[in-house]
Amino acid sequence: MISIIVPTFNGEKTIRKTITNIIESATHLNYELIVVNDGSTDSSLQILNELKTNGNIKVINQDNRGVSSARNTGIQNISKKSKYITFIDDSDLISKNFLSDGIQFLRDYKDVDLAICRIEKLTNNVLEDHNLNFRFNNMSHKVNIINAPEMIHYHMGGVVFRSALFLEEKFRFDEEISFWEDAKLINSILLEKKKYGLLKESVYYYNRDPHNSLTIQSWNDEKRYKYHIEKNYRELVIKSIDLYGKVIDYIQFLIASHYLQFIIKSNSDLINKDYIKQDSDFLYASKQIFNYIDTDVIENLRTSYFYKSILFKLKELEYNTELNKSEIKVYGQKYDFLRQKLYFSFSKEIEKIDSDYQVYKRTKFLTNQVANLINEEYYIEPLFNKKNTINKVFMVHLNIFESLFDQKFIIINSSKNINIEITSKSLVKRTLKRILKR
Predict the structure, then answer these.
(1) Where's the Glycosyltransferase 2-like domain (predicted)?
(2) What is the mean pLDDT of residues 70-88?
(3) Residue 415 covered by a domain
(4) 143-154: b or e for each residue (b if 16 or more CB lie within 10 Å)?
């Protein structure tokens, strides 16, 4: 039997679709569906009572105590016959083969206690790959976190566990925290078990629509900041030291990768900067936790130079990696035929460019024409007042005849003895390439 636990709070807009999706996926399985209504004030309970005619569904009501409490309540009410367990949020969906694939995997691999599937983010009916999906390019069907420390996991949706982890070993969600409780539990288990499986043909559809996103709301919670570092990151550090005598690379990758959420530009409008700027303890806690993160781990993160330099700063170090010419690309943003002006930007490898750099276009007379900065979306980094220049857009004069040929752009920093020349394909070649793709 597989136990499916769904916590819900005011999920009237999505809960019916989620429950129907689960029932359709579990049709030929021995299953129980436990829905924990965490003090909803909308019509969620009424909808659940309508759906409860299915004998496999159990609805449990409790006062509003949070998602961790709701999940723990679900665990306490699973059948003694339960062999497997999974948690699905009240606005999410699963592929039809997710449950059956998870069960079969754990039957086939007795040495593995949990298996995970791909995650697709669903925002306004648009699907987007989750950044954790790179792991499914791995040839193996199993991940050992000691041998592959970069293969981190922190998402509860899309995981099938052996029920014994909860019935016999008594793993539970930490009810003292309201953020990252799923990642903390999963990684507490992985620190002990060391392995997880990959369900390569299954998908968990994570609903990121704004009215459903608890993650967005969590940025206004004071506990999302210093408290999160001390209660979540630090406790995993302590557990790793207790088990291994050190902070294993996997936990280092996990913490460093997740900490990027505090500094990436896409979160700049979500972060409550008062909790960072006015709380010197946040910076202190950040520096303390990064004492456990090796520079090699930061170097190997799947992120840009700019963000790596910030993490190095937390260790009181400078990140001095030189720009790699071969990795830099020129992106044409717009060509104004009337005024014969080209608007362009660089790929993310150039994010570390600052006011000490000059950008030019090489003319047909082999002289350098200055490229003027015309748009710069600054993100003021709360920790170090660094400016993220990922969206710098430059403008340079380019006549129609020149647009027929490849262009050379020059990046110069005299103080660092940097002089990089980048060749960009002509506008004609770019246009033809787009047409052929269609």
Answers:
(1) 3-138
(2) 97
(3) yes
(4) bebeebbbbbbe
Same domain, 55 and 200: yes
CATH of the domain at 123: 3.90.550.10
Please state the rounded mean pLDDT for residues 245-255.
Answer: 98
| SS3 state at 360 | strand
Rg (CA), the chain: 25
Q: At residue 390, does pLDDT exceed 50?
A: no
Q: Is there a domain that residue 116 lies in? A: yes
Sheet (strand 372-375) strand order = 330-336, 341-346, 393-397, 372-375
Amino acid at 64: N
Place of tokens 């819900």: 8
pTM: 0.77
**In sequence order, what DSSP letters do the residues of 19-65 get, joined into one string?**
HHHHHHHTTTS-EEEEEEEES--SSHHHHHHHHTTSTTEEEEEE-S-
Domain boundary among 294, 314, 334: 314
Number of domains in the chain: 3
Give the full edge-to-edge strand order of the sheet including 418-424: 368-370, 358-362, 407-413, 418-424
Q: Is residue 290 packed enough to be buried (19+ CB in 10 Å), middle (13-18) or exposed (0-12)? A: buried
User: How many residues does the structure list for the chain?
Assistant: 438
Give how far the C-alpha of residue 425 lies from the chain's centroid of Cα atoms, to the nearest Å: 33
- Residue 320 within any structural domain of the chain: no
Beta partners for residue 393, in sequence order: 375
User: In Å, how far from its chain's centre is CA 364?
Assistant: 45
Range of the structural domain that residue 269 is part of: 222-314
97-130 pLDDT, tens digit per residue, is 999 999 999 999 999 999 999 999 988 888 888 8
pLDDT, average across residues 333-351: 79
Q: Are 420 and 411 in contact (CB under 8 A)?
A: yes
Out of 207, 238, 266, a domain closes at 207
User: Is 214 part of any domain?
Assistant: no
Residue 377: CATH number of its domain: 2.60.40
Domain shared by 31 and 145, yes or no: yes
Indicate if 374 and 400 belong to the same structural domain: yes
Q: Nearest 10 degrees: CA dihedral of 39, 45, 49, 51?
A: -110
Supply angle C-alpha 160, 165, 170, rounded to 5. 135
Query: Within a 13 Å sphere around the CA of 177, how many CA atoms are in the beta-carbon half?
Result: 21
Residue with tokens 């456990």: 292
